[in-house]
UniProtKB/TrEMBL annotation:
<keyword id="KW-0808">Transferase</keyword>
<protein>
    <submittedName>
        <fullName>GNAT family N-acetyltransferase</fullName>
    </submittedName>
</protein>
<dbReference type="InterPro" id="IPR050832">
    <property type="entry name" value="Bact_Acetyltransf"/>
</dbReference>
<dbReference type="Pfam" id="PF00583">
    <property type="entry name" value="Acetyltransf_1"/>
</dbReference>
<feature type="domain" description="N-acetyltransferase">
    <location>
        <begin position="8"/>
        <end position="161"/>
    </location>
</feature>
<dbReference type="InterPro" id="IPR016181">
    <property type="entry name" value="Acyl_CoA_acyltransferase"/>
</dbReference>
<keyword id="KW-0012">Acyltransferase</keyword>
<dbReference type="InterPro" id="IPR000182">
    <property type="entry name" value="GNAT_dom"/>
</dbReference>
Length: 161
């Protein structure tokens, strides 16, 4: 039996309206994955493009952010990205919306917004349990596993736009 459709709407949100994004990230990363909140809500939030998914009742159910330009180059210089690469991060889907296709919709929304900005690729550091999810969306893993500071193993992944 397949799950009933889960209606959601994804929008780009401004820096002054991150409460919904932070609520989902707090639920997923701080509560479920035990990542310290000061580490999760970092200074790069001010330089990122944020997308928020809301349910039909307006409740925040998913979020993602991406960096590009100088902020991305500062944070991810070790990854060898260039100024035309979006760096996808902080993808979080609340428990009630998992398995609905929302995660894929958020990745595709990042790709669409990155294209609109003239970017040519996406780089991300995926938790290793999520590699298959990103591979199904066309991303390719490279390099060894690493700990990006949370104690959760990650791998670098890329896709061209």
């Amino acid at each position: 039996m397949s799950a009933a459709p889960f209606p959601f709407h994804v929008t780009v949100v401004g820096d002054g309206d991150l409460s919904g994004c932070h609520a989902v990230r707090r639920e997923v990363f701080v509560v479920e994955q035990d990542i310290p909140e000061p580490e999760e809500m970092d200074a790069y939030d001010a330089h990122a493009v944020h997308l928020l998914a809301t349910a039909s009742d307006g409740r925040p159910v998913g979020t993602v952010r991406f960096l590009y330009g100088p902020a991305a180059l500062r944070k991810y210089a070790r990854a060898g990205i260039d100024g035309r690469t979006a760096v996808l991060g902080r993808l979080a889907v609340g428990r009630a919306a998992r398995g609905t296709g929302l995660g894929a919709a958020l990745v595709r929304a990042v790709e669409a917004e990155a294209r609109r900005l003239g970017l040519t690729g996406v780089y991300l550091e995926a938790q290793t349990h999520a590699l298959g999810f990103y591979e199904r969306l066309g991303y390719t893993a490279s390099g060894p596993e690493f700990d990006e500071g949370s104690g959760i193993p990650h791998r670098a992944m890329r896709a061209a736009l």
